[in-house]
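re: that complex we talked abt at group meeting.

here r the seqs, copy pasted straight from the sheet so there may be weird spacing, ignore it
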Amino acid sequence: MSSGPTTDQPMLEGSGIEKYFGAFRVLKAVDFAVAPGEAVGIVGPNGAGKTTLFGVLAGALPPSAGTVRFAGTDLTGTGAASRCRSGIARTHQVPRPFLGMSVFENTLAAARFGAGLGERAAADCAAEALERTGLMHHANRPAAALGLLDRKRLELARALATRPRVLLLDEIGGGLTEAELNLLVALIGQLKSDGLTIVWIEHILHALVRVIDRLVCMSAGAVIAQGRPEVVMADAEVRRAYLGGGVA
Amino acid sequence: MTHYNVERWTRSGRLTVGAALAGLVVLVLLPAFASGLVIDKLTTLFIYILLAVMWNLLAGYAGLVSVGQQAFFGVGGYLALRLVDAGLPPYLALIAGAAGAGIAAIPISTFALRLKGGEFAIAMWVIAEVLRILVMFDPLVQGETGTSLLALNAYDPELRRNLTYWLGLGGLALMLAGTFWLLRSHIGAAAQAIRDDEDAAASIGIDVMRIKQIIFVLAAFGCALAGTIWLASAITFLPRTNFGVQWTVFMLFMVLVGGLRTFEGPIIGALIFFLLQEVFGNLGVWYLAGLGVVAVGFALYLPAGLWGSWQQRSGLQLLSVNVVLRKSGQSTETP
Ligand SMILES: Nc1ncnc2c1ncn2[C@@H]1O[C@H](COP(=O)(O)OP(=O)(O)OP(=O)(O)O)[C@@H](O)[C@H]1O
Ligand SMILES: [Mg+2]
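got the structure back, here u go
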């Protein structure tokens, strides 16, 4: 690897990532990188380690071995909060709203801390995130009053309100109607053309392929194939990994 | 782009603060009219309210359930004794002692805040016990025997009573205002986010440890201030009493009965507790057990407390720490 920043330096990169939960090896020497402005999709059967990889990239889980670099800087030892402030935002597969706060207060805190904005600018940023995700009409409701789909939207709104450079999306499309899914795909496409780097874990392949440049398939803690979506899905090992797993 | 305004003040909020300020003026002038007994009772009430608001700040707004806040109540009093012994004027020593306990809370926090949930709660209780034992080694305290803040006897009793009352009133007013301001700031929002989900809070850029530390130190200072005001009114310092776990029982009772997570609830709870103390205060350990049972009962069956439940039913909120988003130009009176 060259030391100075180059144009093809990855935006976010995990190299040789190992993760054990006790004796259980969940990630096996995973190398994963996403280039600036690129949109990458991740698929893989349940339990493949996709969410765990996000946890390691976002700083929520310390890797057992390996390094995480962001725009050329080694972030391996840093925590989730500082990674978020430097530009890595993630949504949670199982939504984790702040239940004792309103929807707007959820995003306001994200804008204030994650984006590091002052009072007024944070309010505008938080409001914009609610508008983009279609949550504005719920702004002053308690987050606890939201149903599952709106809680997923709030995950996205909160992540956007931190003004990220890299957005890690973990299964935010599940359960949406076809029309809602179209809106989501349009939004993510918009974010991409705004210059955001995107990594999207999603089982709904037909939605994924409308946004992504590259597809990564994980199975049993390892990346087993990556490249153009149709090539990856035709891969023999990928088909084997999915046998009985069920893929859309 | 549409512009938005963040609304932090409601009409009822402004009215409440106005009424509180008017009440404060009356209370400041009260010693000129009221009997010494009333002044003494009110000083005690101020101590209760301060303790309740501090425990709610910790547990209700930051999710830090501590059963060891008597550590700071006791340390504040002890430091005040030490400072008076070193020659500081008594009332200055009472304030400095509380500040010293607040400072002592910083190293304690770096250890205690690493623990979560029940472990944190128990650790705080252990810390309180350890500090009590350490303080008992100081010859000034004379072990179990305790000591008295004799320097206060130099004051005319009437003046001493009033000074202690004003210290309590001023301390309470400043701590209430400061807590309210802090809770409405982004620090307060971060504390609530941490209370609701610590990992999610970190995921949006909140420095969890730093925010917890701010809340912890402020609450320690408040409890210590209550402890020094109490020392000034009781004069005696008994390690078993000043570091007694009964203070935690009192705090739990006031906050859980009044209403956890509301700004007003603990104040209501303190008033109720104050009245109960008047009637049952001498019944000793059974009374203490009764308070504990009632507090647990509230936690299980009426978790919002009296004020919180009433608030949910009536929709009325006097002092809100929440923010509301309005489109520019939109009226402020729609709920
Ligand atoms: N905190 C944890 N402790 C122990 N085991 C865990 C933990 N988190 C995840 N695992 C295990 O690690 C494996 C990978 O989990 P992970 O959530 O990363 O999979 P995934 O690819 O996201 O699956 P899904 O498609 O179901 O979301 C699973 O077997 C899971 O049970
Ligand atoms: Mg997952």
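couple things i noticed - Residues A 50-51, 93 surround magnesium ion (ligand 2) (CB under 6 Å). Chain B has 14 helices and four strands.
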